[in-house]
Amino acid sequence: MSTRDVTARLRELEQILSRASDAFATLRDEGSDGSDARRLPAERIRRLTLLLRSYTDGQDDAVAPVAVRMLLDEYAMAVARLRATTRTEADRLGEAAATLDVCQKLLWRERKLASKEARRQGEVAATEDTPPVELAMMAGWSRSYGTPRESAAALRFARYRRFTAPHLMRWLEGLEVVIVPGEQVSQAVYVSGLFEPCTAVVLRALLREGDTFVDVGANVGLLTMLAARWVGRSGLVVSVEPSSREFARLQQNLAHNALDNVRPLQAALGSHDGTARLRIADARHGGHNTLRDRFVHETAHEIRTEAVPLMRLDDHLAAVGVRRVRVIKIDVEGSEPDVLAGATGVLERDRPVIILAVDAEASEPGQEGRLSLENRLRSLGYVLVAIDAETPMLRRIDDFTAPAENFLAAPPEVAAQLARQVPIAGLNDGT
Question: What is the pLDDT averaged over residues 169-189?
């Protein structure tokens, strides 16, 4: 099927869905109860139509097929629930869904071919082997951001510093990641072969086949990719990243590894819907983009700002039909309280495990953002755990003032289950 054929069939689908949207609007207007059950599907179809138009106009040829397919599934359920289409139109909808599958596979293939061509042209260097490491708790992993002293790491650091173009590196779980010169995260991954290994070990222990993982502040998608492997094809990863630069890298990593169980979203999450101004850090400090007035880390400096969509996590999960969440990771450079404020529904319904990055400034005594986080999680009856990368170990804590790679908040019964795989000091040993 040629790209022209795909585009033509997508435009036909857009017309079908536009008519269906009108039908939903009519049902909504005629509904006597005025309930959200009639209003919400119409909103979903409106979003789907906009996505389709963006895709067919060539504005977003990478992530749109995934997002469209996702919303199309939700649309099909809405059709069945409200019985708003004829059997003939439902059949055409099924055909359109199949077309989108073909289109998505075509795009994945084109991306992989483009990646191979980029390597041939020297834009992306040949694949590098990862250091001979396995995923395990590692003491002092954060030192990979600096200048390592251990000989093997120092050799890889010296090699990394000579890079003048992106490299592909074989990684964990059969994945390949794009390593970019002059970037902190790429350096740490290339030198150590891992990314936040203590947190990754915990995440691996928590996730099961078929689970849903939400990665808020996904950056270039390193934990997203690992989680996509661990939840399997029957599972789902929702990966959220507002920065256009990092989101493009996220898309690149997903496309290269053909991870079609990931639903990427370019947006910021908060306590309300709207638009936010994102401060973009220099390329070396790409993990420090922030919605706050200043960067958490003084070494980062602003190169520009971007207007980004702002939405509540509850609303996004409802719109895409996610029904149960196992784990949410939140690393949003100081905006964690706002993300939780917009996730009240999923927190109370699913009681997911929360993995949190809390910056050093927020860990100071009396800091309001930290206190609001702790109070909200305590109100849910959650146990608080520090993921200590220096020891390395997990330990029960009373608040988020302790130094840690990240923090964990979980229902007591889940924390007890986790402790059987990754011991948690102070949870059941009296220490």
Answer: 91
